[in-house]
Every structure is written in C-alpha cells, then in structure tokens.
Specification:
Chain A is an alpha+beta fold. Helix content of chain A is 38%, strand content 19%. The chains are: A alpha+beta (493), B alpha+beta (95).
Chain lengths: 493, 95
C-alpha cells in the first residue's frame, strides 16, 4: 500500500546522516466506555473497588454463563462514531480473539474483527502553528477489557483482580495519516476532547481510561511504507510524542547502518526515553478469530441512529467556529477554550453581556493558569463564573484597574465573597480623582529631580515614573490618568 | 486443505494442550478426517445466500445499563487453587 504524501508533510521530514526520512504513524486508541455496568454483564465498572468485588460469574467465565450486551455501551459507540464523522454499520459482529493470559479467564476476548460497529471517518486536527491536518479513522469497534495482574506483591507470584474484566472498551484505529510526533499528540488530544464532549469516555489517562498503541515506520519520501513496529500501551499524550521520536530515531539508525526493521511489538520506557522489544512475546500472535456463537449479530436501525445524532451536544469544531464568529476570538483562543467542554461553558457564562475578549483572557490566563498550578479541574474552581464576571464588571466600570483586579481574583480564590463588596470593604477602589493623583505625581517628581532631567532625553523613563506613582498609590490610581499627568509634568511624549 | 505434523504441534501449543510426539500422527489423522468431513460443505453453491445466524428470526437480546451483579468476591475465588485477600494467585507471569 502506498500512502500519498500530504503537502503539509513536506516540512516534517526527519534529517538522517544519509538524507531525509518521513515518519509514518498510526494510532490505536483504547477508550473505556462510560457506562455503569460492563459490556456483557451487570457488574459495576466503578474504578478502585476491593479485589474481585465488581465481578459477576460472567466476567469470571464460569461455565454456562452467557454474555448479554449492555444497550448503553452500544449507544455510546454509535455516539462516538458520529462524533468522529464516521459511518455507522447497521450490522456488526462480535468475534472471539483467542489467547491465554491469567487475567483473561475466558481464554478469549470478545471483540469485533471483520465487521466493526463503526467504519471509516475523519477528524480535523489543529496544530500549534495554526495549520491543520485531516486524519482518517479506519474503524471503531467494541471489545472487553481484561483483568489486572499485579506483579509487585510477591517475588514468585502474580495477583489477579478481575474488576476490569468485561468493562467495555472502544478501540479507535486511525489510518497511517500522521507524519510527526506533534501531529500524533494533537490527534490523540482531539479524539480525547471529542469523546469527553460526547460523554462516551472520561479520557482519564492516569486511571487508564484512555491509552494508545502507536504504530511507527519510516521511509524515504515517495517510497512504499516501511516495516512498522507497534509500541504498546502508551498512557500519556506526552509519552506518545516521546515514544514516536525515540522509535523513529532507532529505525533510522538501523536503516542507515544497512540493517532491516523487524516487525515487532515494543514497549516505551519513559525513564530511559527509549523503546525496547517485548521479548516474552516472541512468537507471532495467532488469535484465531471466529464469530462468537453466544452472540447474534448486532443490528441497529436508522431511526435510532438519527435519534442519537439529534441528541449529540455541540462538538468541539462547531463550538470553536461559533466562538470565533460570535465572540470575535482568535482561532487559537477559541481552540483553547473549546478543548474542554466545561471550560467552554464557564467561558460563555463569564462572557455573557460582557467584553468577550477580556473574558477569554481572564479564563485562559488567570483562571486556567491558576487551576493548572493547583492541579484542579474547572468544575472545582473556587472562583465561579458569576464572581469572575463581577470582577470584569468592576474593571469595565473603571472601579478597579486590571492590576487590582488580579488582587481581587486572589482574594476571591482564597476567601470567596462578592468582588464588589471586597473592593468596597478593603478600599481597593481605583482613584480617578485627578487632584489626588496629581498630588502623588508631584511628590514622585519632586523626589527624583535627576530622573526628571534624564526623562527629557530618554522618554522611556516615563514607564519608570508610572510604576513609582502606581506603587505609591497602592495600585489604585487610574493608570491612564497617571500616564497623562506625567507626560505633561515631564514634558515628554 | 490438510494439516501436517507441524500444524498439529502448533494447534496444540495454541490451545495449551500437551501432546507427546507419539500422539502426533494419530491426531493428524483425526484432524484431517474432520477437515475432510467439513470440506463437503464447499460443494454447496451459496452464491447470493445471506449467512444464517439463527434458525428463528430474532434480534440480539440487550440489557439496560444497570448494576445488577457483583459483590460476590467469595464466590468468584472459591474454586481457585490459591487466593489471597480475594485476589487469584498465580505463578509469576513476567520476568
């Protein structure tokens, strides 16, 4: 198969000792479906239960147990497919993927092979430099998660907990359309954002709700695809980028030394920043897929798909476009705000009836910056949209300066309360009384005769004077008035 | 289609069944007999016939998304040869 080189990829070649190389990447994303019960049993999907407490006899593969599909998991897969602009297959089939492992009591995973529930789709991915790429989706299928083995509890034994056994996963497979670690990271973030908007996966990579297998190969531009290696179970967006860069470097070195790439499964070691072969899986996998005789084909009707489509929330691309159109935001700001559904909703409450760009600056810089610093989600923000809106109102009315507003934000963050009351009670109101400001300006000018002389030759010193006056007024002087007064007193500008 | 001795060893390994060398010939004969029996099906012309998945027309049964099961860790591990704190305990599976 020969994949054409997208024009945007020209600048993404990796230089080697013998010329440039093109890196070709495809992702398989495993996303845990948001549901209360498992894919084929009534046991809970809740994270962190006592060992084997969220396990039914079906999940433990006791003899005679039969799987019955959870209708909500099917709907979640359809919603996800629609969010990825993908074709929904009205008929799909569950197959058994056979292999032995202690945390897989059935001896097979129920998955979908030749007839997945969702077919081809595409996702638009914006890159930090302002360009964008369209990434093809090959398929999305439903499958069971396995249990969990703990290897560090005992020197010679492994402990097996089946709480995850049977939890529904969606495997989302991209086409090999990605050409750099940056594109792969942006694609994974975008898919995560879409799933979180849809409420079909919580996207929590720390808990393992979202993880990716990364396929990497390299070739000379225009050549057929090279032999790929699959890097299994990469569990953060940052590591996906690092794993790709490390693996591409490894493959280029081998090829430039005249070697050959072996198709194999590898693991990424974040501490060493390298990938290594999974030696314990030497023999090629032979999963001997066949249709699961316990399950009839899964059939959907157009009407239900239409109902699910009609009930979808506004998706990130549409929201971003609306933010640019209706609020006049830059594409970058709109993208940052739309990347998280709750952040976008928070922003809209703040921006309602106010300066939308100022609202965007405050939400992106002050609020998100502060939340990230403390590792909090926006849902747990100590400053509500109403409080932040009130701070913006105080700035807009000229009651406080932008600088004082940051102090008020700090106070609200730590102590709560109504920003207007805080400003009144603590005397933070901006001084707009020209007489009072002039007195401070005169004081500063009188105290610094040498600087006054310099300022006439070097008007940039004006800034220093403004700073001194603002400091002397406790930040409460109206900066514009200070500026105007100083200019006339110093005879500059 | 027929299997040779190597196929028999591979199938046995994939199924985690220990097969001694002196059993291979016999199993090879049995597997080939089964394949030959099933092979007769290929004589039927099924062009344009939808694969039948059920003898009576029925739709896949579905459940609602309600937690109705679990909380039976004692039962789950009861048959296990070795357990600890409701974990299954198995020989270590990584080096």
């Amino acid at each position: 198969m020969n994949v054409p080189v997208p024009s945007s990829a020209k600048k993404k070649l990796v230089p080697g000792a013998t010329g440039d190389w093109e890196v070709v990447i495809g992702l398989e994303i495993h996303a845990q479906v948001t549901s209360k019960a498992k894919l084929f049993s009534g046991a809970s999907t809740e994270f962190g239960g006592a060992p084997n407490s969220h396990v039914s006899l079906v999940d433990a593969a006791m003899p005679g147990m039969l799987p019955v599909i959870n209708a909500e998991c099917v709907r979640q897969a359809v919603r996800s497919g629609l969010g990825l602009n993908a074709r929904i297959n009205l008929k799909s089939v569950f197959d058994r993927k056979n292999y032995f492992y202690p945390d897989l009591p059935q001896g097979y995973q129920i998955s979908q092979y030749k007839q997945p529930i969702v077919g081809e789709g595409e996702v638009n991915v914006a890159l930090p430099d302002g360009s964008s790429v369209t990434v093809g989706i090959e398929r999305l299928h439903l499958e069971q998660d396995a249990g969990k083995s703990l290897h560090d509890q005992h020197p010679t034994l492994s402990y097996v907990d089946l709480n995850r056994s049977g939890v529904a996963l969606m495997e989302i497979v991209s086409k090999p359309d990605l050409r750099s670690s940056e594109e792969a990271r942006a694609f994974l973030s975008k898919v995560r954002t879409i799933l979180r908007y849809l409420g079909t996966c919580d996207g929590d990579m720390e808990k393992g709700s979202l993880r990716a297998d990364v396929n990497v190969s390299v070739r000379r531009s225009g050549d057929p695809l090279g032999t790929r290696c699959e890097i299994k179970n990469v569990n953060s967006i940052r590591f996906v980028g690092q794993a790709i860069d490390a693996e591409a470097r490894r493959q280029i070195e081998i090829l430039e030394d005249g070697g050959r790439i072996e198709q194999e499964t590898r693991l990424f070691d974040p501490d060493k920043g390298e990938t290594r072969s999974m030696r314990n899986k030497e023999e090629a996998h032979d999963y001997r897929y066949f249709p699961d005789p316990d399950l009839l084909p899964l059939e959907l009707d157009e009407a239900e798909i239409e109902r699910l489509k009609a009930a979808l929330p506004e998706l990130p691309d549409a929201k971003k476009a609306r933010f640019v159109r209706d609020y006049g935001l830059s594409a970058y700001d709109a993208d940052v705000l739309a990347a998280d559904r709750e952040t976008a909703a928070f922003y809209e409450r703040v921006a309602h009836g106010r300066d939308s760009k100022a609202a965007a600056n405050w939400v992106i810089n002050e609020l998100t910056g502060r939340l990230n610093k403390e590792g909090r989600e926006i849902g747990a923000s100590p400053v509500s949209a109403m409080q932040l809106g009130a701070i913006l109102d105080l700035i807009a009315r000229g009651t406080i300066s932008g600088k004082i507003a940051k102090d008020v934000f700090e106070i609200v963050w730590n102590e709560g309360g109504d920003p207007a009351d805080i400003v009144a009670a603590r005397g933070l109101r901006q001084v707009t009384d020209l007489g009072a400001i002039e007195a401070v300006v005169d004081e500063i000018v009188a105290a610094n005769p040498d600087k006054v002389g310099e300022a006439k030759a070097n008007p940039k010193l004006l800034g220093w004077f403004v700073g001194q006056v603002m400091k002397a007024s406790g930040g409460k002087a109206n900066p514009q008035a200070v500026n105007d007064l100083l200019k006339s007193k110093l005879g500059v500008g | 289609m027929s299997v040779d001795a190597e196929n028999v060893r591979r199938i046995a390994h994939l199924a985690r069944i220990a097969v001694a060398d002196d059993e291979i010939e016999h199993l090879k004969g049995e597997l080939n007999a089964i394949l030959a029996f099933v092979e007769q099906l290929s004589e039927v012309d099924v062009a344009g016939v939808e694969p039948m998945t059920s003898v009576t027309p029925m739709a896949m049964k579905k459940r609602e998304d309600i937690v109705t099961d679990g909380g039976i860790a004692d039962d789950i591990v009861r048959n296990a040869p070795a357990t600890q704190d409701h974990y299954f305990v198995v020989p270590k599976v990584v080096e």
